[in-house]
Design a protein that fits this description.
2 copies of one chain form a homodimer. Chain A has 2 domains: 172 residues, FAD/NAD(P)-binding domain; 148 residues, 3-Layer(bba) Sandwich (FAD/NAD(P)-binding domain). Helices cover 31% and strands 25% of the residues of chain A. Chain A has 11 helices and 25 strands. In chain A, helix 1 packs parallel to helix 9 and helix 5 runs antiparallel to helix 6. Chain A is elongated and about 70 Å long. The termini of chain A are far apart. At the A-B interface, strand 5, helix 5 and helix 11 of A face strand 5, helix 5 and helix 11 of B.
Chain lengths: 421, 421
Amino acid sequence: MSQPHVVIVGGGFGGLTAARCLRRAPVRVTLVDRENHHLFQPLLYQVATAMLSPADIASPIRHVLRRQRNARVILAEVTGVDPSRRVVALDEGELEYDFLVLATGATHSYFGHADWPTHAPGLKTIDDALEIRRRFMLAFERAERQEDGAARRAMLTFVVVGAGPTGVELAGAMIEIARRVIPRDFRVIDTSSARVILFEAQDRVLPAFPAAISVRALRDLKRMGVEVRLGETVTRIDDRGVSIGPERIGAGNVIWAAGVQASPTGASLGVPMDDNGRVRVEPDLSIPGYGEVFVIGDLAHVLDERSGGTVPGMAPGAIQMGRHVARTIASRAKDRTDTRAFRFVDKGMLATIGRGRAVAAISGRCIGGWPAWVLWAFVHVLFLIGFRNRLAVMAQWAWAYVTYQRGARLITGGPKGREGT
Amino acid sequence: MSQPHVVIVGGGFGGLTAARCLRRAPVRVTLVDRENHHLFQPLLYQVATAMLSPADIASPIRHVLRRQRNARVILAEVTGVDPSRRVVALDEGELEYDFLVLATGATHSYFGHADWPTHAPGLKTIDDALEIRRRFMLAFERAERQEDGAARRAMLTFVVVGAGPTGVELAGAMIEIARRVIPRDFRVIDTSSARVILFEAQDRVLPAFPAAISVRALRDLKRMGVEVRLGETVTRIDDRGVSIGPERIGAGNVIWAAGVQASPTGASLGVPMDDNGRVRVEPDLSIPGYGEVFVIGDLAHVLDERSGGTVPGMAPGAIQMGRHVARTIASRAKDRTDTRAFRFVDKGMLATIGRGRAVAAISGRCIGGWPAWVLWAFVHVLFLIGFRNRLAVMAQWAWAYVTYQRGARLITGGPKGREGT
């Protein structure tokens, strides 16, 4: 009899962890992803802000799993799941499974505004990051050629919507580039006059973090020159800027870091979901009625007993869930019943703001400034998959830190797209 | 009286060298380019074959010139030149000049086949390189999912048309990746069974190099497993492969490295051109009738007394021409007449084929193998503009050499384009 077939959909932190943790289990593993690479998403904002190249934070999934003989990798798009037939539908063909792990993550939510994505790109994929980088660098180029004062000011105004970790990191990096990195490169404009405005609908930045962290992060952002506007909701976004109720801000660049929506794969399961499209899972992360189907990571709505809320949609939660379902599947593959409940261990939260500035909440203690920044850098490099990437990233950070330069300031692609030039 | 205004169009080797050599001249310099970066084109094939990231071989032009106070940089597209009015037309507005240096280079020529560019991308820009990388990596992914044997064989057949330096370098790198880098990553296909077929219409590879070099390069290519077909012309390219007269080769990937056509900017001058659209310049590199307009680099048809032909369209020629016109303009700006003739100094030719394999022709002597490869690596790193890039590239080469791995094997962008994911 052949070994049970485990299909894992999604090569992010959750899916890849599950695959790796099954390496000694008596199962065959198939990991399906529509991208060929695992992306180290916590550092994606550094690609968007020209610090790192895409290859520094991404590894081909099949390369990561090359030594794991019981695993194969397929580049394909999953179009749906039929739990009653135990089948995953792909863009071409389908896959039968004995166990299924759904880890397709989340995408942006623009709260139903269909035209906002065009004007305000979000940051989830490498292509997103390159698009934001292109628009950001292009804004200074256009301002350099613009003779009208008001138009130039709008070009040099950058709006970031949403002050979660991504929004805070983007805003901090942008003001740093404008004030420290590129002023000498331009002859006409003063890049340090650029405005970076960070909007947050809630009353503090980093709303998912402890309150003390928010206070510290707000102080750091203001000191760096970011204009932070709390408790205000952007009501309109178009190609010339944003509106906040009656108030209008001309801005050549708007970036969306606000809403998150679980990927649509979850809906095909036909089980209860929350408002963000996340699947409400059982305590063991399986779905109601189908004990062999697990949902993990950003796609899962998982209750966290200790905090009373849900497990936050960040890498540590996804990794822990991936490990948990791998353990469950491994023991079930050995004909044991295993429905152990998942329990989230909060190891702390980290966000970086700028050069030598970060904030961290670790076992109830809040730290900021240099110590937090060193911790942040250490943790992120440690977790970057692939030894080569680690070395390259460290070298680039060190170099950028000393010289205030950024290596990846290229404008490529563009609306003409790849067919163009 | 204000200083003479020198407009340089194009930030490649020729234009950038001219700008830098004018740094102490009593002139104002404006460099116009439609890209924001100078590209180290000799290493572009390494981006296409996943060895380097775009940022490793490109620097923002305004960053390169940031300390040169008499120079400014404009990101704009030049749409034409009116030498009688001394005006360059841009996509928006125009620029008046006292001296003009046209260095807009060359693009691909598909010999009038309008549909070939879609099926067989060429390699001139970063976007070209990323597109080739995407197609190349995607071919293996598709083959891994393909169950039909004939279709799979076609997917794993790569055709390179044209055996100049770019074609030879691409073919060598591709066979190396298929046989050495990725075999372990795939479970179904044997990537080392991939075929790389290199077509050259002339009777030897590297036709612009001395004959002894061609012999050596051919031997190296064959030993590595490249199928070289000389004296044969591809007569048809479509999305399923190529035809050579009645013969048909199924190939999922075709790359164009054959024809070169000077950029269309030259045509607007209204002066004599050669068959490839290059401007026939006077001995001092100015154009007939307009002593203040110079054409350099790949856009110029420059006779080389010693070889009897034209100066080859490679970096050394462009750099020497840039230096020459800068000197001429500097002395004319000081009210001296200067119409010194340009004389090309051939310092040698280099091409790399694979790991530890290269060929070089230096002052009449031909060398191959390891010594040529070390020389090649040394020269290329030496010329890479920007200290950071040099370090990063060396580190990546060393790492790849030891481990046989390549860091930039990402599939990004794609036909869906940047709007997509």
